[in-house]
Amino acid sequence: MASITIRGVKKNYAKTQVVHGVDLDFASGKFVVILGPSGCGKSTLLRMIAGLEEISDGTIAIDGTVVNKLEPRERGCAMVFQNYALYPHMSVAQNIGYSLKVAGIPSAERAQRVQAVARVLELEHLLDRKPMALSGGQRQRVAMGRAMIREPKVFLFDEPLSNLDAKLRVQMRSEIRKLHRRLSATSVFVTHDQVEAMTLADRLVVMNGGRVEQVGTPAEVYSRPASRFVATFVGAPAMNMLEGTVTLDGLSLLGDSRRLNVSRTGLPVGAKVAVGIRPEAVRMVAPGAPGALAATVDLIEELGAGRVIYVDLDGAPFSIVTSETVHPEPGSTVGLQFAETDLHFFSSETGGRLDVFKASVPEPAL
Amino acid sequence: MVERTPILNFFTHLILFAGFVFCVAPFVIVAIAASHNLKDVNDVPMSLLPGSDFWVNIKTAWTTADLGPKLLNSFIMAFGVAAGKVIVSALTAFSIVYFRYPGRTLIFWLIFITLMLPLEVRIVPTYAVVANVLEPYQTIMDLTGLSWLIEKISGVQVQLSLGLLNSYSGLILPLVATATGTFLYRQFFLTVPDELTEAARMDGAGALRFFVDILLPLSRNNMAALGTIMFLWAWNQYLWPLLITTDQSHAMAVTELKQLIPNVGGAPEWHIAMAGTLIVMLPPLIVVVLMQRWFVRGLIATEK
Q: Which residue of A has its CA nearest to B199?
C-alpha cells in the first residue's frame, strides 16, 4: 500500500520533449488507469515511476519518499510488461521465483512462496513448463505472478492485455480486477483501449500529447469530458462533434446551414464552439418533427443488441446508437433529436470544456 | 520464392550431389590411400579399391609420429583457445551492447577492424611479446628513465622477463581475442528484447547477475557455434604453434604430421602419411558431429 505523488514531471529525449510537466496524485490502494493514444507519453510516465527511464525534471514520490535517484529494485514497484518478458530459458516456477533468488531468499522459502502465488493464479500444474509451452493467457498470468511474489507496494501494468485475443482480454481484465481487490496494492495500468480503461479504473487519467487532459472516475470522464480530445477519445463510437457559432436564439451549426434552438447558454454571441453529442443520446424521429435536424442515412452497422447508424449531416459525419428496432434504408432521410442537457460545449480555440446552462438548468437528479 | 517442379528438383539434387562429391572425394582418396601397402600406394594410377593394410598403417603412423601426446597437446590448445574466445568475446559484446560509455562505438569499430588483421600479419610483434610478456613495460621504464632511477636508488637492475615460449599459455593466449566472436555475440545480444533486460532490472538483478543468469543461458547456441568454429580453427593452426614450440613436449598434432611425410631419398611411405592425416582429422570431425545441432541453430536463428 503506497501513494504516488507526481510533481512537474517532464521527459526529454535529446531535443524532443515527450512529457510536458505532469502533476498527479494516486491515492493508496487505488486502481489508476492511464489512457491515451499511442505516443501520448503514458508508457514513458509509467516507466519513470518504475525507474526504467530517467526523470528529466520534476519529482516522483512513492509513499512520500522521492524516488528519482533510486534503482528500480529499491522503489518497491513490480511491473507487468506488454510482451510478458518472461525469461525463456527458465521454467514457470523459476520465472516467478527469480526476484526472490536475486534477493538471496533460501530455496525452501522460495518454493513455498512460488507455490502460494501459483495457487492464486491457478498455475500450479504448469510450474515445470517453459514459457514457450504456455498459451498467451497463461504467460500473462506468469508475468503477473512474477510481479506478485515480491509483494510490491505498487503494481505497474504496461498495456499487459494488448497481445491477447478479444475473449481472453475480457477474462484477464476481470482477473486483474479481482486480484487487485484481493491484494489492494496501488496499481497503475497503462492502456490505449478505452473499454479496458473504463472497466478497470477507480481513477482514470486521460493523457494526450504528453499532457494530462483529465483525471476523474470513469463515469465523470464519460459524462463530463474536460476537453474536446477526451470527449472524442472516450466512448465508442466517438462523440459527434459539430462546429458552430453561438447566436441570439441558440446555435448555428456547420457554417450556418443548420440552426439549433437552445436555451441561454451564457456564452457570448458569435463565440465559436464545438458542440458534442454522444451517439447514444441521439433519438431518431420523423424528418419533419419540430426541432429535429434532417440527415441522410449512410450506413448501418448491426451489433445484435442494437445498431450504429451513420448519417450525413451536410457533409459532416454523425453516428447514432440505437437499440430500437428501426431500419431506415440507406439513402433515406431521418430526423435527429436530442435533449439540450446532453450537449457538450467545447471552445473551438482551446478545445477546453465550456460550462453552459449552469444557471438555467439544474443538474439532473440521479 | 520456392519453386517445386520435378525437373527443377532433379537439377537441384544433381548440383547438390556434384557439390557433395567434390567435397568428399579428397577424403575418400586419403582413406583409400591409407589402406594400401607401400607398393600399391605408389602405383600410377593408384587403385581406387581399398587395400587391406588400413589398421597396420594407422598403427605405424601413430607410433612413428608419437601422435598420442601430440593429439592431447592439440586438444588442450584448441579447447583453451575455443573456451577463451567464447568467454572473452561474450564479455566484450556485453560491454559494447549493454553499457553506455564514451567511445563505445569507436571501440566496437576498432575491434571490428581487427577482423581484417589475421594472426599472420601481426605474427612478428606477437612473437616478440610472447617471448617476453613484460618487454613493453621494460621499454616504457627504460624510456622514461624509471629503471635508471630504480637502479640508482636501490642498486637493483630492472630486468623484467616473463617468457611464454614453449608453454600452453603462450600457445593459447595470443589467439584468444576475437573480433568474429564479439560480432556474433553483439548481433545476438541486439536481438534480446529490451523488456527482458528491464524485467531483470525490476526483479532486482544487477548487470553481472543479468549477464550470468539470463544472457549467458540464452546464448547457449551462440556459444556452441562459436566454440565449434573456433575449436576447428585452433586445431588447424600451423604457423603459430610451429613458431612458438621448439621442444617436442609441446608439439601439436597438425605440425607433427610433417614427420610422416616422406623425406627426399626416404621410402615414399604415403600410405602412412595418409593414415596419420586421417587420425589428426578425426577429433575436429567428432566435435562437429556432436555439436552440429547447436552449431546450426546458433548461426542461423535465434530462439523464439
A: A85
